[in-house]
From TrEMBL:
<keyword id="KW-0378">Hydrolase</keyword>
<dbReference type="InterPro" id="IPR023214">
    <property type="entry name" value="HAD_sf"/>
</dbReference>
<dbReference type="GO" id="GO:0016787">
    <property type="term" value="F:hydrolase activity"/>
</dbReference>
<protein>
    <submittedName>
        <fullName>HAD family hydrolase</fullName>
        <ecNumber>3.-.-.-</ecNumber>
    </submittedName>
</protein>
<dbReference type="Pfam" id="PF00702">
    <property type="entry name" value="Hydrolase"/>
</dbReference>
<dbReference type="InterPro" id="IPR036412">
    <property type="entry name" value="HAD-like_sf"/>
</dbReference>
<dbReference type="InterPro" id="IPR050155">
    <property type="entry name" value="HAD-like_hydrolase_sf"/>
</dbReference>
<dbReference type="InterPro" id="IPR023198">
    <property type="entry name" value="PGP-like_dom2"/>
</dbReference>
């Protein structure tokens, strides 16, 4: 039996305070294309990859798929204006470093890729302890499918029972459950605790700083 353990992290809303930036920039992209989509609905869809998010918000059967590229490009262009000032959540980098210091392998599992993922990693400022990232470019299906979590585990070379996945959305929790890893949630993405627990969260923390403060008594300690 392997003694390796993997701590897999979502990024947006979990380590970097970007969910509301995504909400506003998706809202503006929709507005420019003539769609009025409530921000509350967009917020709950954050964490889905682009095509799935558009299906979820605009209707998979009725919408015009020819709009996808335009909408996605508009969102990316609007969001990219924030790349140089994306704010890491309090103690996000410290949390990753503390876990690495305890022997955990750190991997990211995110729908971000390319320049966006690079900007997020700069914000976290803990690249020395991050083994790698399973991005949208590396999997066939995004969360809530288990593919991103499974790919992150493959990078860490651990079985599901030796991995914890920390995320902030319902989609994160569902992906963790489907891959068989331990689902842990943070509230920093703005999703209610009850929704996260219903989706499978085994433990819920306020934010990365709260999780860091409970490493000796929470789910990470139990796996050590």
């Amino acid at each position: 039996m392997t003694t390796k353990r993997a701590a897999i992290f979502d990024v947006d809303g979990t380590l970097v305070d970007t969910n509301h930036l995504h909400v506003v920039t998706w809202w503006e992209a929709f507005r420019q294309a003539g769609h009025q989509v409530p921000m509350q609905d967009i917020h709950r869809a954050v964490g889905l990859i682009g095509g799935d998010l558009l299906d979820h918000l605009l209707g998979g059967d009725d919408r015009d798929p020819d709009e996808d590229e335009q909408l996605t490009a508009a969102h990316h262009a609007l969001y990219a204006t924030y790349f140089e000032r994306l704010p890491a959540l309090d103690a996000a980098g410290d949390l990753l470093c503390a876990l690495a210091g305890r022997g955990w392998t750190i991997v990211l599992a995110t729908s971000a890729s390319g320049a966006e993922l690079s900007a997020l990693r700069r914000a976290i400022d803990a690249d020395d302890v991050i083994l790698g990232a399973a991005s949208a470019d590396d999997v066939g299906d995004g969360k809530p499918a288990p593919d991103p979590v499974r790919r992150a585990r493959e990078l860490a070379e651990v079985p599901s029972e030796r991995a914890v996945f920390v995320g902030d959305t319902v989609w994160d929790m569902k992906a963790a459950v489907r891959d068989g890893v331990l689902p842990v949630a943070v509230l920093s993405g703005g999703i209610p605790r009850a929704d996260l627990e219903t989706a499978g969260a085994r433990a819920v923390y306020r934010d990365p700083a709260d999780l860091l403060g409970h490493l000796d008594s929470g789910v990470f300690a139990d796996m050590e």
